[in-house]
Amino acid sequence: FSPQVDSANAGRVLASDAAVFLKKSGLTDLVLGKIWDLADTDGKGILSKQEFFVALRLVACAQNGLDVSLSSLNLPVPPPRFTDTSSPLLLSGTASSDVPWAVKLEDKAKYDAIFDSLNPVNGLLSGDKVKPVLLNSKLPVDILGRVWELSDIDRDGMLDRDEFAVAMFLVYCALEKEPVPMSLPAALVPPSKRKPVSVPGTMPLIPSSTSTKESHQSLPPVGILAAKTPLTQ
């Protein structure tokens, strides 16, 4: 237990202290609320040491794209990542530069072929060119909004070849009924986008609800666009 969350040193954490701490995970309030409900088993608004560790483990599950549920607690996940590194409790996972990229070579070749077929300009695809491909997956628009947010790693409103591969990877995961993570796991960050030194919290996080709403609205409802490019070759 760190003094950062156990200010009264009583071996328990109040909801207000825990909320401030858990927000540093970069997860949305909705997800954090779910984590709190699962960890605070007796609903008293206070977590015991054991319950607090359950909350931390659920944060790690959410950051790695797993369901926030008690059944995920038994799955192996890296330690949770938080943006504040001043506390010894805050562990960073493996240095992201050492993690192999989750996109396999043969998949990358497929994604590159789709990328090239969309006529990139200076090695970049605008949102307008990527949108029909995303919509053609028939995934819900809010999921597609999150896919775009996570894959536009440098936030320039365009996708380069590697970012497009991340978008396709996330779409195919979602089609296989795997949840799209709230923040991009280290293994999904393309090697070309990785910082030489891994600092917890440099992973792009999904923006606050206001900007998420705007990005969702910028994707028209499925059906407005006749998708010209089939997702599967």
Automatic annotation (TrEMBL):
Enumerate the UniProt keywords alphabetically. Calcium, Metal-binding
Q: Which GO BP terms sit in this record?
A: endocytosis; endosomal transport
Single GO MF descriptor: calcium ion binding
Q: Which SUPFAM superfamilies match?
A: EF-hand
EH domain location:
1-83, 107-195
Domain of life where this protein originates: Eukaryota
The UniProt record lists the EF-hand domain at 27-62, 139-174
Q: Where is this region: Disordered?
A: 207-233
Protein name as it appears in the record? EPS15 factor
The record lists the organism as: Alca torda
Protein's gene = Eps15
